Amino acid sequence: MLLVAEDVHRAGEQDARALRTLVEHPPTGLRAVLTYRPEELAHPGLVLRAPVGYPAEMNLLRLQLGPLDEAAVHEMAVEALGEDRCSAQFLTRLYERSGGIAQAVADLLTELKTAGPLPGVRPTVIGRDRLTARNVDEAAVPVRLTELVVGRMAALDEETRRLAWAAAVLDEAATEDELSSVADLSVDSGRNALTAALCEAVLHELGLGQYGFRMPMEAAAVYQLLAGPVRRELHGRTAAVLGARRPTPWARLARHQLASGRTTDWLQSVEKAAHEAVEAGDHQSAIALLEDTLANPLVAHPNRARLALMLARSAYSGLRSDQTVQVLRRLVDDPELPAAVRGEIRLDLGLLLGNQLGQATGYVDLIKSVEELRGQARLAARAMAALALPYWPHGPLAENLDWLARAETTAAESGDTVVQAAVAANQVTVLLSVGDPDGWRQLAGLPRQSADPEVLQHAARGVCNAVDAAIWLGEYTRARELLAEGPRLALRSGDVHQEQIVQSTELHLDMVTGRWAGLASRSRAYVTEVGDTPVAAGDAMLVLGVLALAKGDWAQAGTWLSAAIGSSEERCPVPLAAATAGGRIRLALAREDLQAAARETSDGWAAVRAKGVWVWATELAPWAVEATVRDGELDAARKLVVEFAAGIESRQAPAATAALMRCHALLAEADGAFTEAAEHFRHARICYQSLPRPYDAALMAEAAGRCALASSPSTTAGIAELADAVAELDALGATWDVARVRAELRTHPGSERPARGRIRYDERLSPREQEVAELAGAGLSNREIAATLHLSPRTVEQHVARALRKLGVASRNDLALKTHDNRVR
């Protein structure tokens, strides 16, 4: 027999007596579970209002249920809202504000289920309704918790209530003396009030000699009941208490000074808090504090200019903030600010928009800042150096080089080592981006050992930019070496943005060099982390698009390749735009959509031609040539190859050299010169293997084998090359490519060992059923599978039906998981 009695602390005398009697004289086999809140018992320590004569043979256990840990709160949130809506910052703040109290967590999640985007926050690439810490902060205190706290407060006398008010305003653990001071109580009265508040479970002992509310939401429930004049007085006394602490908590002190009307003291504390955060490398805290301060109309223009400059500098060094952009935009449009101040703010705004958000307006702001900063060589040189970077689709390379020359001259004239380091970093970036070998010499000269953190920050940026440039060039060994150095420099300099960008660059490097194990999950996790920072997420999305295409998940491939460039190529770096165009061309060719392939070719080629950095056409050129050939425009394809060859001449770009060899092979194949084409593909394969780029090397083996067999159908070399391609692609996990090459192999007699009799697979999948099931599970239609495997759509339909039956699944979506475990070896 099991008896469960919940909330026994609410039992009246009659019910409590009945329970005591039952427990003192239990029937045979009774098991009882009583739940209660110790702090709400009518008589502390007596669960059933009076002592109980428990039988000697009865086993008694007392279990105290504490708050949930952070992992459990995380699990509750994901289950209630879905993982896509739960950012890391949201989960951390949910745990902090709820204190891990299960009911509070559940009520908050109910409140947040219907929460829409906050004002001024734009949607992210990974979810329109993604929640942040700000959503938790602005959520109302749940009704259940409010009534519980208010009910407990009602039982307090006047002095104890004042002490609870003081704790609500302090909103952090405090000593007995501090609480008494804020409540304006004497030592004895404060001690008595604190004891009463603890007995009534309004306040709790949070540590040795430290008292306060159990969780921030309880404090918020009490705070919202305070009348304005009372709040103001309490904030004033709290400011006095915090001002006496050492070290002084400037940010918290500023909040109380503002609430008590001491605006001059508030602004001084804000500046000290911001300086303290910047010196500690915590730019995000500085940004949040300065944003809130500048949004307050009490800040007059002299103070606004000074604080705005601090915000601009922190915003550029920290991570992205939509509110930061909005605040800075209002400031640069403020005609009452001096032109020089507007120019400096506009410079950092332009850098923020371009480098972190990828917005075209950043380029325009940088040009304006050059004019506004006339006479300030140090700052003007930084703006010119930023305009020299060719990544953005604004004007040809020659224009970027002009800006670089102006920046070098202006930096030299300034005599400022910091701005000279900034220009040197951008010079390295420009030279390496275009494949100029002199860039490596310039890279070696960056001031990596400087004791000046600002100089070191620019050196770190130059090294991190060099990693990215090296990957686009095909200098993968150098990229690995720099990848080990760049993050260390960024960490030493406190540049959070560069440290984050390098993570995306590493994903890109792992993709091209064939380190595909776990790469998709790592890339998705990274996009989830920085999905609202387009520039940071771009490389990772390209990686996901390429991997999805290789595995046959064409719907996902299209989604990721489109997301990588944002809403428009105008906000996308040119090399990324070219690479994604190459991926979209290949996707269109796989779907036999020649019109779409031609459109992507035209747009992608025009973007590279307008910029004039042809090493960035490496990922685009082969697919553009193939699309143009398949569209029947052989002369146009030859012109593309000639233009590409001229563009990379004298450039040090191993990946572009391999891509050019591949393009020549495609032209030879289109001309019917299959032997020559096979040799070109083999040379391209050797180039790709030496880089290394195993995926492209495997595709070259496929192409060489295809051409060899077209030239001489009985050649064993071609069959061997196709077999090598299958093995290499299978090792990478390129499901769709493997199926395509195996289908090609089957069309050639002698490519497979003859079987003795017909193999019976019974309830196992045959090799062909396995291939069809994998492609169907990846999302390909029957028509697309038929084109890949050289089968009729009707045959594919039959294979899919048999696979569904044998694997015991109801839909094509379930095939992806099942086929991996049932693969025939």
What does this structure look like?
It is a single chain. By secondary structure, the chain is mainly α. Among the domains are: 1-65; 70-138; 143-246, Orthogonal Bundle (Arc Repressor Mutant, subunit A), CATH 1.10.10; 299-510, Serine Threonine Protein Phosphatase 5, Tetratricopeptide repeat; 767-821, Winged helix-like DNA-binding domain superfamily/Winged helix DNA-binding domain (Arc Repressor Mutant, subunit A), CATH 1.10.10. It contains 41 helices and 4 strands. The chain has a two-stranded parallel sheet. The protein has a two-stranded antiparallel sheet with strand order 3-4. Strand 3 (204-207) and strand 4 form a beta hairpin. Helix 7 crosses helix 10 and helix 23 (453-473) runs parallel beside helix 25. The radius of gyration is 34 Å and the shape is flat. Mean pLDDT is 87; it is low at 118-128, 753-757 and 821-825.
Mean pLDDT: 87
CATH class of the domain at 299-510: Mainly Alpha
Number of helices: 41
Cα separation of the termini: 56 Å
Write the layout of secondary structure elements.
Elements: E1 2-5, H1 13-24, E2 31-34, H2 70-81, H3 88-98, H4 102-112, H5 133-138, H6 143-154, H7 158-170, H8 176-183, H9 187-199, E3 204-207, E4 210-212, H10 216-223, H11 228-243, H12 250-259, H13 263-279, H14 283-294, H15 301-317, H16 322-332, H17 339-357, H18 361-372, H19 377-388, H20 397-414, H21 417-433, H22 438-444, H23 453-473, H24 476-493, H25 496-512, H26 519-530, H27 534-551, H28 554-564, H29 574-590, H30 594-611, H31 621-630, H32 634-648, H33 654-670, H34 674-690, H35 694-711, H36 716-732, H37 735-746, H38 767-778, H39 782-789, H40 793-807, H41 815-821
Parallel strand pairs: 1-2
Antiparallel strand pairs: 3-4
Helix pairs in contact: 2-3, 2-4, 6-10, 7-8, 7-9, 7-10, 7-11, 8-9, 8-11, 11-12, 12-13, 13-14, 13-15, 14-15, 15-17, 16-17, 17-18, 18-19, 19-20, 19-21, 20-21, 21-22, 21-23, 23-24, 23-25, 24-25, 25-26, 25-27, 26-27, 27-28, 27-29, 28-29, 29-30, 29-31, 30-31, 31-32, 31-33, 32-33, 33-34, 34-35, ...
